[in-house]
Amino acid sequence: xxxRSAPNCHLRLEWxxxxxxxxxxxxxxxxxxxxxxYFVAGVGVVYSxxxxxxxxxxxxxxxxxxxxxxxxxxxxxxxxxxxxxYICVWDSYTVQTISVLKDIHTHGIACLxxxxxxxxxxxxxxxxxxxxxxxxxxxxxxxxxxxxxxxxIFDISWDLYQPNKLVSCGVKHIKFWxxxxxxxxxxxxxxxxxxxLQTILCLACARDELTYSGALSGDVYVWKGVNLIRTIxxxxxxxxxxxxxxEEGFATGGxxxxxxxWDLTFKPITVIDLxxxxxxxxxxxxxxxxxxxxxxxxxTQDSEIFEIVxxxxxxxxxxxxxxxxxxxxxxxxxxTKPLAMTGSDDRSVRIWSLIDHALIARCNMEEPIRCAxxxxxxxxxxxxxxxxxxxxxxxxxxxxxxxxxxxxEAIHELKYSPDGTFLAVGSNDSSVDIYxxxxxxxxxxxxxxxxxxxxxxxxxxxxRYLQTNDGSGKRLFYRIPSGKEVSNKEEMxxxxxxxxxxxxxxxxxxxxxxxxxxxxxxxxxxxxxxQVLVTADDYGIIKLFRYxxxxxxxxxxxxxxxxxxxxxxxxSHDYQWVISIGxxxxxxxxxxxxxxxxxKDSLHIAPQESLADSNxxxxxxxxxxxxxxxxxxxxxxxxxxHRQVYKEDLPQLKEQCREKHKSATSKRRVQAPGQSIRLHxxxxxxxxxxxxNLFYTxxxxxxxxxxxxxxxxxRQQNTQRxxxxxxxxxxxxxxxxxxxxxxxxxxxxxxxxxIWDTDTTKPLSILKGYHQxxxxxxxxxxDGKRLASVGIDDSHTIVLWDWKKGEKLxxxxxxxxxxxxxxxxxYMPDKLITAGIKHMKFWRRAGGGLIGRKGYIGPQGKSDxxxxxxxxxxxxxxxxxTSTGDVCIWKDVFLxxxxxxxxxxxxxxHALEKGFVTGGKDGVVALWxxxxxxxxxxxxxxxxxxxxxxxxxxxxDNPSIRAISLGHGxxxxxTKNxxxxxxxxxxxITLLVQGHMEGDVWGLATHPHLPICATVSDDKTxxxxxxxxxxxxxxxxxxxxxxxxxxxxxxxxxLAVGLNDGSFLIVNADTLEDLxxxxxxxxxxxxxxxxxxxxxxxAVASYDSFVDIYNVMSSKRVGICKGATSYxxxxxxxxxxxxxxxxxxxxxxxxxxxxxxxNQIIPSLEVEKIGWASWTSVLGSCCEGIWPIIGEVTDVxxxxxxxxxxxxxxxxxxxxxKLFRYxxKGKFGKFKKYVAHSTHVTNVRWTYDDSLLVTVGGPDxxxxxWIYEMEGYRDxxxxxxxxxxxxxxxxGGYDSDVTRENEITYTIRALSTNIRPMFGxxxxxxxxxxxxxxxxxxxxxxxQPEKLQTNNVGKKKRPIEDLALELVFGYRGRDCRNNVHxxxxxxxxxxxxxxxxxxxxxxxxxxxxxxxxxxxxxxxTVxxxxxxxxVxxxxxxxDSADMSATAxxxxIWDAINxxxxxxxxxxxxxxxxxxxxxATGKLLLSVGLDPExxxxxxxxxxxxxxxxxxxxx
Length: 1513
Prior knowledge:
The protein contains six helices and 117 strands.
């Protein structure tokens, strides 16, 4: 059985023939090292003409179409096409990526340009708006963006003589841009009388605001400012594709095949006509020129690169050639010499020397060529044409031997037989013709049998058989020369094949991915000697497999470079090279084959750095079947953290429901209760799906998380403090190197990461906007300034943050399998590692992206699942713990060795000053020396070693260890079972905190007269907790099944527990030993209650829709309550023990008499009068108000009433604990709400004296204890906010002015309707004003004002030169506030009206104006900081937030000289209604008019947005 692992050999790209001249311009330059940089297909090429050597940049994943050279001429920027195209900035010397810019453009990046200093890069997209984007490319940060033009943009350039100015040109336009703040503002070039409006193809900027541009007609247009001042007619005879500025002047190249050189004032120097030179030809078209000193580089449409020395300009030197535009399909290799032959739709056949890397012969044919073959003796070259004809040439001098046309459709494949007697020709007519070579190619046979076109064919070694593949994926065999089909499989068994190029057949089964079409692999070639197979596919990927390759989904090594379809691939005659050809990129790639024996000498070629690789196929792992995952890890990878409804959806849901329930708001509703609760203690620790989430703080407290709470535990005082900023499950926690700040990441639709202070429990920074569903790993850098985070979306996005500024630095797709851990390199803040299922990756930051390399395991290693990782004592060393119990030691990206550390997975590891500590599933903590040579000490977590001061009991010996941390002379250990233990170095173990294990907790009961409660969970345990100051677990008992409910008897001696299989037990409340058990039902027991008083009866409710009543004394069932149509959810007894209240899943409220169980109908008024022993019901008129407005989406799962019947506590499916006044009549009562649980609060109970409220959180496994605080007990805390789902009328209406202003809608000037009536009666004919009686009824809200229309209806009329604004009457006060200010010690006042900012001198009454706004100004503020004197900010109305000229914007300007300091285009969609400067003057706050009233903070000097949030509805 052939191995399914990938082959151990390797391909290295050695040469690329070709240059991309079609559809691209200005893409060929000299670097500082006098090398030549250009691109072809998806590869950036740096060619050294001196050494005739190429280097390759392979960071792109699709065709490169644009290139710009940095002013230092070492760095290069390239842009690609694709759905999510990106820009790479790379070093032409080392060909390593420096920065990746992504996430902005779509479709592709059409042009690029660096500014004079090389700090900024501008890019133009291929999207419908041709977006222009300016980048700070080193940081990978977008500075500004604007829609470029409605039509294609061909060139863009920075004005090298004026800062912050750019010019772009394209189809019928040229635009002059200025960059101010974060806004790009365009002015269109005015063609005027000087020249015709036409398409501009290229441009160059010069001094004195001059711009030279090349037009489609061949003229050069000269611009000053935005006006065309003159044209240079007939500079070229046809379109000018390229213009290049250098110290000496300008070079232009055009479609007419000429190069012209001009001096600095654009006077002609000389002209070079390439068509007239030796190498020239008719129709030569120049796409790119570069002039440096006395050398000129020229790139042509037909993929040639010429180098011209100026003083010998009629002898250009041809340094690179390739096929012209048209698909490239034909490839053949010479049988005895290092030559490759290619033929293309450009009708040329070319012969390349694989040794000299050069074109040695070329011949043009009449027809496009589709396939080629060389005869066995190397004398003849046969070519199959697209029109069905066949031509044979002599290889020696390319003269024709014979031309045959027997077919009408294209010939796709032909091959000579190994003995040289026959030539088999397969055509799209579904047949193979056999020609006799010696008989001057006479047709001697025909093979018919295929139903589809022939795609591949191979001869047997004895030339007696032929096998074919056709378009339908069929494989057929023929006898030769008769052409009879062989149907007997036995006959074919022993046949040896001379070559293997077929894509179907047993030997190549494994090349097909498990689910793929049978036509996406275009070509295969087998190397029988090296036992490898090379394949080429439609995705531009070349793969190496072992040969034979029998089982589907075999592993492979893959290589990228071609952009799209690779049409053909072949081994050279001596198997030294692989030649591949690209269909659309019509380039020829030559790869050097490095066999296994040589691999050992060249470790440096191991992992290729590539961006494209990061989201690659299944089988880059070089190993065969992966070992089975450990059960715990398996379980964990299957948890999905998706919620049906996320907390972020609540405002929207409420809004929708609000419309429905408008009517309900008219009633006056009861106020929220004055009493409140405060979180006091949480039992629980999240260990079942999290690792390394437990640390000592600076002062020796312990920080960890459970549910949505960050907990700081003080072990001396046994108290806890909480960070309550999260609103859903926290999944990860990391501590700052100084051990004072903590970062936690949560679940959410747009999940947030909070960085908070463990001392004050206040948030310092909240990061969101780049992850989906949740954040599963975070880590601080060694200097504490950066934070790395990993999301749980499908591609496990990795984000690097500057957390104090709240800025994303870099983002990339991590891996398609789950990532468990991210660790930042302590020595190099730009490097990090991620580890997870079957992978270990080493990343380095490159601008806005991260570049990953897979850990290199070596030919013998197995890639394992990594559960934890740390860095060692140098920047190269890293250590990772695997799921099989090994520790892997890495140097750079290479695995050096593995050490067996634990039985079962290593879940946690921690680096110390002089060594390491690891913890595993085997429940052992191991201390190691600093190189993992020796294990110094192990501690086993055993019940026997528990110290007397423990706050609970260990459930089992050797629990799986999920987190380890060291400090303060102890080892801190977190287990999968939710326990936190402290191990003393000398051995004793103290248990500090514990909670339930994985599984939902539902059952909760409080003791009738002690501060004790019992819980029962799906983890199959029943636990008793002490709620008094000792906060510990008193007892635990394992059950045979999970349970959903429990209840103490009225005397507190017995405890009843309902289980999930329909049985229930009564146990002794102290010892938890069985007293009695019953099993009468099949479904879950959902609630269980002793009757009040003596506890004579026990009511047991089940999901079978029955309530059974048992007599406790006689242990018999005495009654059954029937009549419920759905499962029972809650039951309560009345005080007499005679009546049961029952709630069901169908929201029925039923009453039954006890003990017989007879159904009673009781009117709701009577229900209120009955004295209930307990109230845990969620239905009925007394608690109508507890159901939220989105009651259809969520359930109120539990309630409990205080014994004084004043406050009702509820728990719901959103994780809210709420307090209502009782009775909560009327819909949508007001409440106080508290978030600490994550999703479902499954049960709430008051203790016997109402001093504490106890809640359990279902899947978050935690038990929370809250202190009940009486009214006026202490000042309001933020979480006590009074809330209600609906504002009702009595909450206070608005003043009429406020109402009116609230209802104004601002339309945009360009879109507004004409306000002046164009019909009706002329004013002097109109009637007088109606009398008082006739007046229409008055509304307090004014009619909505239409937007005032100024007379210039068109938006861009030419300004009339002789009008200057002198005086403006008016001030906008009707809907604006705080918009008049004194300046200059009261001499001037500043205010605004319409779209003008006005500075009014009080003494003289003169006015001066700021007129840069293009629509109504709505707000104005003055910077109060002495450093920014007279700095004013104004915000205006605008269109949608598309960053175009009509988008809302804020202008910051100097009030005295009216200079614009910064323009901020903002994301507020309708306009800016308020602005304010910070005390330092450096930050600016703005509020939008959009429905969410977004609030944004800006650093206005840099024009960059700092943070934003939604305001209020």
